[in-house]
TrEMBL record:
Protein keywords: Hydrolase
Record-annotated Histone deacetylase domain positions: 87-298
Keyword Phosphoprotein (UniProt): no
Pfam families: Hist_deacetyl
PANTHER family cross-referenced by the UniProt entry: HISTONE DEACETYLASE 11, HISTONE DEACETYLASE HDAC1-RELATED
Organism: Pseudoalteromonas prydzensis
Protein's name in the database: Histone deacetylase
Matches recorded under InterPro entries: HDAC_classIV (IPR044150), His_deacetylse_dom (IPR023801), His_deacetylse_dom_sf (IPR037138), Ureohydrolase_dom_sf (IPR023696)
Length: 305
């Protein structure tokens, strides 16, 4: 297993960090917790290009992603009159485009090696080719899939699995792949919170809707039951390992602890390894102070896979 990280993944927001509960430095904290563990870290060469992003977005979205007002709305921060688009692009959108490059790199390396690649960022599962919302601007998995098809890493008939264990339903991925029968979704989400679209929830092949307040034991049991429905024949799996399932998280509504998150990732990745499915893990959401520790614990638990 290799970890994908680069210092520019972090969102260095200055005073703006007080406007959002997001811990913009969490990726650096994870890496510092992995220090001395002999885990190889690789990094993308640079942000994914505008050309590649535009290949994925529909015509209208190509314009909307350049609107300061709409980007700020998607990032769920209030309007900030003294901040220009260039500042947003440098401080938030460039780290996000690096994250997209990280997911694509991870997918390529996973397919080439047959192993597991862990991108600390990415997992922007609320964005799609015609929408951005929920702190997600670019759908890294949709963009990666398109590029992998183009480069020949994946064929038209190759099956792809997306396992989404972020606390929120992955509406952007469900929408992105609504017409692609070769992409299957397993989604464990809090059914009581955003996003509530029944259209995208119905697209999930292996849905695990749970109630607010669910604890680790029940969560892991339901996840394990859903994973047992997965059998082989997938060319590639993406995992969205959001840590907003932690009890201390203000948004997710679940009650998992750091050990539960580590167990969760080990259960998922062990299962995929047994089925010999190359896998790229992406970061997903996770806004609490425990988020970095949970990710580091999960990587440690899975480092020998
Ligand atoms: Zn989330």
């Amino acid at each position: 297993m290799k970890v994908i990280y680069e210092p520019r993944f972090n969102y260095q927001l200055g005073v703006l960090k007080y406007l959002h509960p997001f811990d913009g430095e969490k990726f650096a904290k994870v890496v510092s917790e992995l220090d001395g563990l002999n885990i190889e870290i690789i990094h993308p060469n640079g942000p994914i290009s505008t050309k590649v992003i535009n290949e994925y977005l529909n015509e209208l979205m190509r314009k909307l992603v350049l609107s300061k007002t709409l980007v700020l709305r998607a990032l769920e921060v209030p309007k900030i009159p003294f901040v220009g688009f260039d500042f947003l692009d440098k401080k938030i959108l460039t780290p996000m485009r690096l994250a997209v490059a990280g997911t694509l790199l991870g997918a390529e390396k996973a397919l080439e090696s047959g192993g597991i690649m862990w991108n600390l960022s990415g997992g922007f599962h609320h964005a799609s080719n015609l929408n951005m919302e929920g702190f997600c601007i670019y759908n890294d998995i949709g963009i990666s899939y398109q590029q992998l098809r183009k480069s020949g890493h994946l064929s038209e008939t190759d099956k792809v699995l997306i396992i989404d264990v972020d606390a929120h339903h992955g509406n952007g991925n469900a929408y992105s792949f609504k017409d692609n029968e070769n992409v299957h979704l397993l989604d464990v989400y809090n059914e009581d919170i955003y996003p509530t679209s029944q259209f995208t929830r119905n697209r999930v092949n292996f849905p695990v809707p749970l109630k607010s307040g669910v604890e680790g034991c029940e969560y892991l049991e339901k996840l394990t039951q859903a994973l047992e429905l997965i059998t082989g024949h997938y060319a590639l799996a993406f995992v969205i390992a959001g840590t907003d399932v932690l009890a201390v998280d203000k948004l997710g509504g679940f009650k998992l602890n750091v050990e539960d998150v580590a167990k969760r990732e080990k259960i998922i990745l062990s299962h995929l390894k047994t089925l010999e499915i190359p896998t790229v893990v992406t970061g997903g959401g996770g806004y609490s102070k425990q988020s970095a520790s949970a990710i580091a614990a999960a990587i440690k638990a899975c480092s020998t896979l």
